[in-house]
Design goal:
With about 325 residues, this protein is α+β, with helices and mostly antiparallel strands. Among the domains are: about 1-20 and about 50-120, no CATH class; about 150-265, Chitinase A, domain 3, CATH 3.10.50. About 55% of the residues lie in helices and about 15% in strands. It has 14 helices and 6 strands. The chain has helices at about 1-20, 35-40, 60-70, 75-80, 85-105, 110-135, 140-150, 180-195, 200-210, 210-215, 230-240, 270-295, 300-305, 310-315; strands at about 50-55, 55-60, 155-165, 220-225, 250, 255-265. The protein has a 4-stranded antiparallel β-sheet with strand order 4-3-6-5. A two-stranded antiparallel sheet has the order 1-2. α1 (about 1-20) packs across α5.
C-alpha cells in the first residue's frame, strides 16, 4: 500500500508541477434583477463542483479527475473506485505542500525551475509521441506481407519422441543402467531402425523412453512452435515432414528419435491484431530514428567514454 501511495504522490507531483496550476474562483453568476426573476431562475447543477477544500486550497472535480489520468493505467481504476478517498487525501496533501512552497517562492529556485522545465519537455514529448502514433496507418496489405515474411514464426508441429539418456544427462533414470554416450546413441539408432521397419512408436516410447512424462503418453509432446525446444531438437523437427521419423538427434538430454505427426500454421486472422501492433511499433521506431538522423546528433566522446576497468579486475581477467 505504501508503494501505491508513493506512486500516486509522484505522479500527482509531476502533473501539478508542470501545470503550475492555481485554482481560480469560478466567475460569479449575475444575480437576478428582480425578486420575480429570482424566483423563476432555474438552479443549475454545478458541472465542476468543489469536492475538497482546505484553507485556501480548493480541489474541483475536474482537477481531481485530471490528476487521476496522470497515474499509471493499473492504478486509475483503484483511484476512481475503492481508493478514491485515499487518493483524494494524498492529492490534498500534495496541493497543500505545493501551495505553501509557491507562497515561499520555491518554484523560482534553480533546482525546481530546472526540474519543471524537464517535466514540461517530457509531457510535451509524450504528447508529440501520441500524435505520431495516431498518424500511423497500417494497411491489410502491409500486415499480410509481414505475416508472409515471418511465416516461420507462426508454424507449429505436433510430434512425439523417444529419448535415450546417457550418463550425466538431466533425464537419466536412476532405476536404469547408466549408458555411455556411445551406448545411448547405438540404442537410439537401433530403436529408429525398428520404427522405420514398422514398430509401434507409442509402445516403444512407453517401454524405452527416458522422458517419463511423454513416454506415458506414447512419446506425445503435443503441439509447439519455434523457440520452445532446444535448438538441435527444433531444427530437426521443423525440417521434417509429417509422418517422417527424423535421424537420431543429440541434445543435452540424450539421443532423440522424433516423429512429426502434423504441421500447421496459425491463421493470419488469428495473429492480425498482434501483427498490427508490431508493424505500428516498427513504423514509429523508424520515424523516431529518422528524426534523430535528420538532426545529425553529435556526442562528446570524451564525456561518454566508459571509465577504465579497475586494475584488479584487469589482472583477474588476464
Amino acid at each position: 500500500m505504501r508503494k501505491l501511495i508513493m506512486i500516486l504522490i509522484a505522479a500527482l507531483t509531476v502533473a501539478l508541477a508542470v501545470a503550475q496550476t492555481q485554482t481560480q474562483p469560478a466567475p460569479a453568476t449575475p444575480a437576478p434583477t428582480t425578486p420575480a426573476a429570482a424566483a423563476q431562475a432555474p438552479v443549475a447543477a454545478d458541472p465542476d463542483p468543489v469536492i475538497v477544500s482546505a484553507g485556501a486550497v480548493t480541489i474541483h472535480k475536474s482537477d481531481f479527475e485530471a490528476a487521476v489520468k496522470t497515474l499509471p493505467a493499473e492504478y486509475q481504476t483503484f483511484a476512481m473506485g475503492p481508493g478514491k478517498k485515499q487518493f483524494a487525501e494524498d492529492y490534498l496533501r500534495m496541493k497543500l505542500l505545493a501551495s505553501k512552497g509557491l507562497s515561499e517562492g520555491l518554484d523560482k529556485t534553480p533546482e525546481v525551475t530546472k526540474q519543471l522545465e524537464l517535466m514540461r519537455e517530457n509531457l510535451v514529448a509524450t504528447e508529440e509521441l501520441k500524435k505520431l502514433e495516431n498518424s500511423i496507418t497500417v494497411s491489410d496489405a502491409e500486415l499480410k506481407k509481414a505475416y508472409e515474411d515471418n511465416k516461420k514464426e507462426y508454424e507449429q508441429v505436433k510430434a512425439r519422441h523417444i529419448l535415450i539418456a546417457f550418463k550425466g544427462s538431466p533425464a537419466a533414470q536412476k532405476s536404469k543402467k547408466s549408458l555411455t554416450e556411445a551406448e545411448a546413441k547405438a540404442k537410439a539408432e537401433e530403436l529408429r531402425k525398428k520404427l522405420v521397419a514398422g514398430a509401434n512408436f507409442a509402445e516403444l516410447a512407453k517401454k524405452e523412453s527416458d522422458d517419463v512424462e511423454s513416454g506415458k503418453n506414447g512419446g506425445d509432446l503435443g503441439a509447439f512452435g519455434r523457440g520452445q525446444m532446444v535448438p538441435e531438437f527444433e531444427q530437426a523437427v521443423f525440417n521434417a515432414k509429417p509422418g517422417e521419423i527424423t535421424p537420431v538427434v543429440k541434445t543435452q538430454f540424450g539421443y532423440h528419435i522424433v516423429q512429426v505427426q502434423e504441421r500447421t500454421s496459425t491463421p493470419f486472422d488469428t495473429v492480425k491484431a498482434t501483427l498490427e501492433k508490431t508493424v505500428r511499433q516498427k513504423k514509429l521506431r523508424d520515424q523516431l530514428d529518422a528524426m534523430k538522423a535528420a538532426a545529425k546528433p553529435t556526442f562528446n566522446e570524451a564525456y561518454f567514454t566508459p571509465p577504465a576497468a579497475p586494475a584488479a579486475a584487469v589482472e583477474k581477467k588476464q
